[in-house]
Every structure is written in structure tokens, then in C-alpha cells.
Task: structure prediction
Amino acid sequence: MPITTPYNDETTAMQVVEGLDLSGRRIIVTGGGSGIGVETARALASAGADVTIAVRTPAEIGLPSAHLDLSDPASVDAFVASWEGSLHALVNNAGVMACPETRTPQGWELQFATNHLGHFALATGLYEALRAAEGARVVSVSSSGHLRSPVVFDDIHFERRPYEPWEAYGQAKTANVLFAVEATRRWADDGIFVNALMPGAIRTPLQRHLDEEELEEMRQRIDSTSDLNWKTPEQGAATSVLCAVSPLLEGVGGRYFEDGNEAGPNQPGTRRGYAPYPLDPDAAARLWDVSLQTLAGAGRQAASAT
Result:
């Protein structure tokens, strides 16, 4: 049976942590300096958690921050090497959306490199810290954008097919869900559970690569869709916080949530629910292996241990 909670699309992150005591819990939020990331970090810290925001540029929000560029394997490795002690939750929130065709120095398509490979390297690099917490969670912030594309294993980095920014975004968001499936399969026995989620439609700096025409098209599409409403950043952070710390999800992993509840299969003509491919265990296992091989090819060997 799908997991249901008292929460919905109007719930805020602060409401999810109401009454919780997170004292002693150490949590990392990537991209925690703006958008739903900052609201995620603030809510967790308000309940007593020791929150570190991992960002490319320093953020003045009153919480400890550390440099992290997810598109750069060396930056990820440096962040991992600097972390000491256990880690109770890792919120993989940072991302880039529908940007012009851009490649990393390794030749990787930027959205896949940032949204998936960087977070994969971060989570696998912090595996021992997560295991030491004896009951850790990893949160993989996906999107209804995953409905646009599965992971195209034959040409992940658009080397032979024409680049299309929304297909690239969709593929990366599918990868976020597949990671949750395979990481839970591998790590559940160590007390580490991973879930993915759709935060909702929120106006944030994530949309900085869209021109005015694209933004207006997005606004009209959401405004005319009865199954999807605009959220505030505080509401958009609620499901991330739920997956990170709520007792209602104790021992739960490998699932896809939206609006504070486990989602069901997508129905044609809607932007809700999940497509068949992001929860496919075979695709999840294949993506894990491809990710290890890709990172190893860039000189990063640490992830192969897990």
C-alpha cells in the first residue's frame, strides 16, 4: 500500500518538523543557499539539527556552509574528505534545469553531471559517514520533469542525438529516482534508506536559464493544469523535510513522493505520479554501474567501494 501522511500540497517544511527534536542529528543540504534548499535547511535547523549547506558560492543565511561544485569531481572529493564523523541525512537538493548545451571538462552533459553524477559521487563518498549514523537517510530531489525522458543509456551525454534541454533535464531527474531505488537495495541492511521526491511547481532561481517566453509558457501550463498548483518555497521544501527526518518514513526507501505522500503511477495528461521507468530495478542497477564507470574514468576511484 502507498504511504500516506497527514500532509498535502499546502503543508510547509516548518509544519513537518513541528514537535520534532532533531538535536544531535547532522544533516547536509546541497544547494541550501536559495530556493527550496534554504527553506529545507532552515526548517531542519529550527528543530535542532546541525545543518551544513553545501553550495558553490557562500550563502548568508546564518548556517554553516561549505564549498561544493557538483559538476566538478575534484570539488566533490574535497568536500567528502573534509567531512568528519557521522551523517544522519543527506539532502541532494541542488540542481540545474533546462540550461543551454554545456559540457564539463570531462565531456559530460552538465545537467546529468550536476543533478546525478555529482550527487551520486557525494552520497557514495559519504557512505561510511551515513552508515555510522545507524539509521541515516538520503533524499534525492527529483521532479515531474522525469516524465519527459528515461535515462537514454545509449547516448546519455547527447554525443550523437541533438541536444534538447528539457529531455536532458528529464533524464537527469529520472536518474535521481533510479539512484534512490538502487541505493536502498544496496544500503538498507546498513540502515541507510533513500527516497526520491517531486517538490512541486515553485518559482526559484532554478529557472534562471529559461527566457521570458519559456517562463510564461511554464506559468500558463501550470495555471491551466488542475492537478498541479504553484507552491511557495516553504511548501516546496516540505516533502524534502518529510523524507529527511519524519518518523512516518522510518525504514522506508526506494520510493517516490509528492505533496507529502507516496505518489502513484502517472496518469496520461497529468503531471503527477511516476512513469514506469524510474522505479525499474534493472535500470537502477545499470545506472549505478554506469555511474561508477563514468566517475572512475575521470580518476575518481573511491565510489567503486560501494
Q: What stands out?
A: Residues 301-305 have pLDDT under 50 and may be disordered. The longest helix spans residues 165-187.
